[in-house]
Design brief:
Layout lengths: L12 H16 L2 E2 L11 H12 L12 H15 L9 E4 L1 H13 L5 E6 L3 H10 L2 E6 L9 H6 L5 E7 L11 H14 L2 E5 L25 E6 L12 E4 L2 H11 L10 H11 L1 H24 L4 E2 L6 E5 L8 H12 L1 E2 L1 E2 L7 H4 L2 E5 L4 H11 L5
Parallel strand pairs: 1-11, 3-4, 3-5, 5-6, 6-7
Antiparallel strand pairs: 2-8, 7-8, 9-10, 10-13, 12-13
Amino acid sequence: MASPWRAQRLTSSTTTIFAEMSALAVATGSVNLGQGFPDSDGPGFMLEAARQAITDGVNQYPPGRGIAPLRQAVAAHTLRHHGLDYDPDTEVLITTGATEALAATIQAYVDPGDEVVALEPFYDSYAASIDLAGGVRVGVGLFGPDFRLDHAELAAAFTPRTKLVLVNSPHNPTGVVLGDEDLAAIARLAVEHDVLVVTDEVYEHLVFEGSVHRSLASYPGMRERTIRISSSGKTFSATGWKIGWAMGPAALIDEVTAVKQFLTYVSGAPFQPAVARALDEGDAWIADSVRDLQGRRDQLAEGLASVGLEPAVPQGTYFMTTDVRPLGYDDGVAFCRELPHRAGVVAIPHQVFYDRAEAGRPYVRWAFCKRAEVIDEAVRRLGALSR
């Protein structure tokens, strides 16, 4: 008998494939280079600060906007690294990771029928958040093989129904860091069409030699229309803590706060002082971590090339892309489903991040935020592909 109750169900091919690949990794004993989280912890002084906070009884609801020391640390960190000055009392909101900040912002500002311009391939939560708000995704391609922004396609994406532009740089899954010409073009169009801009900058510090990340909020006419989102998870290797933030003009942040309070309300009480300390004292740790990550990027790139998978070496993030056609595959999903059985390694197919799936069909994403010995073992196993 059919249920008398009905609910809207959001299905995500990204969520499905991640679950499938994780299950395959366990079932086959594979090295998992699919999921994007580090396999080592962040700075010891940050971890100790969290333990001490628990011991000291920091275990109940924190203030709705986040504890003052963390909001102050976020503002000081952003001023120090990006030259952007935000009032910690009115222009900074602490969230349950960047994902909640994105969801709350989209729910606050996108109404049914509004168009949201975003870089395609999309981080998976974008699609769900826009769908829940009743918005319409308008993808602008960062497509292979060069993964460059097409400025003509970008300009054509704006219509009278455009409400919001969502910019992710450094970009997951491609590893692209948008350059000055790209960011200036986005800024010019946002001002011309008078639209809100949301920037997802969770990988702001994971940028490698030769590339520079610049926040879109720093461009002329942009601070007053931009909600800047980031988090501690990627920067400090603490993805499970889920401490993120949104920054912007007070009137914009007030609206995001009004939605956020009915999502999680608050979270992460003992982690908030720990992240505050990391932001205040962790610049040297970040620099060392990024140098180490660049070495692991190069290690995996060399290993993939040795088995015939020439990588698009990323400028940022901890993801790398390869085209699987040189190994006789034309479908990344088929490749990723066979890879654990053939070589004992797991990766993620690109096409689940696209509306235009054909554009991502031959590409596969690999995570290199793993220990050097794990990458060595993965490369050794991948040798089976060339035999």
